[in-house]
Request: fold
Amino acid sequence: MCGIAGFIDLSKETSNEVLVGMRDSLIHRGPDAGGEYFLESDSFSLGLAHRRLSIIDTSALANQPVHYEHLSIVFNGEIYNYKEIKEKLISAGYSFKTNSDTEVVLLAFHAWNVKALAYFKGMFSLTIFDRSAQKVYLIRDRFGVKPLYYYVDSHLLLFGSELKPLHSHPRFKKELNMESIWYFFQYGNIPAPHSIFNHTYKVEPGTVLTVDCNTLQVEKNTFWSPEKAFHKAPLSISFEEAKNRTRALLFDSINLRMVADVPVGLFLSGGYDSATTAACLTQTHKDLKTFTVAVPDAGLNEGPKAKQIADYLGTTHTEITCDLHEALQVIPMLPTIYDEPFADSSAIPTYLVAKHAANSVKVALSADGGDELFAGYNRHLYYSRIPNAVRYLPSVLGSSIANAIGFSGLSGLNAQRVQKFARLMSDFSVESYMHAMTTSMSNDALTKLINQRNIPEKLPFYQGRSPLATMLLNDSINYLPNDILHKVDRATMAVGLEGREPFLDHDLFEFLAQVPDHYKCDGKDTKILLKHIAHDLLPTALMQGPKKGFAIPIAAWMREYLKSELLDFIEPRFIKEQGIFKGPELEREVRSFLNGKDTNSLFIWYYFSFQSWYNQWM
Reply:
């Protein structure tokens, strides 16, 4: 696990010193070693830089960049099946100088070019420079576990694991992208391929960008997408067959991700995903270290159940508390950790558990992706419970019902849910349902607060073979990489800890995409298949209880402890100079929240997060 950065400069003005600065802006991602490669040709200069967190082959021989004939690589991530690929390459006549997976990736690319990606099981963002072809390849893994940004203008291309190395280049232009700001206030994140700045993008999951070093022309190709799997007909398979196959694939994936030359632990919550992972691991690994974050102020504290699971499995367990004191220390750090507006408040406990885990292990498995694979979100359940007749209500009747719904007497999350229901009543397609359930507020509401002349188009929507398949597909393409994986990558790498996601194995994913819908969600329950697997490994009584997650009382904390900062953010001169928001309307919204209005609390946290980022980076 590491951080990568670099450039292609047609004007040949970028120095090696600038490259080193870009590299060392990522020292938190790779505190163990750093390296760089600088080249100046007739028509361009190029730099590749790397910060290393040593996980596999911790010797200096495995430091990067790595070179082989006309190819050079900087690589962030892990290829868990690298030994199998290495054997194929040895059979083909290749020899190796290290025991690292990086060298395997480079030689596999030499042997098979981009077709090598089909062999890789893992998470990765990588850059390969081909001196013969004078091309650079920017590549991101199938699910987008590892990030990769790039900036391009007429004479300069920059890339990096985060935005920080781009900021370190003197010719990087920090021009805000208004469409991205709009997306942020809808989703609480900025979805790929967009970024907060103009001319700056995220490489999308499962994508190869080929850059011509002489022209900076970028060609985009997709090497993997979840769409194909969700378009296939469901398998004709019994529930027991599906359970046994899923368990075997999951067991293999979990154990494959234990490959490391350093200590490995596990983030453990009280839920089925991480509990099943822990139960599988304890069958083959002794002295497993588990880590839980407890949020006692939230009323949805996972700490006690996680401890019960750890006690039953016999793991060495550590519980970290995310109370008011710890949270208030982390909140000012969030703009630095994420370096792009990001408003998932569970980033706070995620960072805290990662920080404490890093004192004991260098790698931690997490259970991210379980909800997307097994249909674990409430929205998956709600859709199947709403009577079919409602879905086909005439739009006028639907609008009338929506307008008739009152919000008096409702507060907080319940009021926000009713608002979302009212928004989707008049057009009950899967697309409108998903848009309503995954965005914070309507376009009409946002236009009253943001100075945006042209409302951006909705994110692309992908159709699966059924309503549930469609929801899972869009969750996998949008919410999973743009929120969940983004959150965990930054939180873990901020403290030099590698996070791994055993649920995000493409063989497991492709199989589950074809499993019949009702094996996952039947209108009465979610994660049916996973729960049956878990109940074979853990007592059913131990696992019963509501889904909790990392809920924290952020609204209450903003009203009491972050109030002065929030008021500073609506100071009229600041708002006018910034030019993004409509001052009077915004001030009314903030003050109504401070006076007790709950239905806009999500927007207020998004606003606080955005302005905190803006104050640091602009």
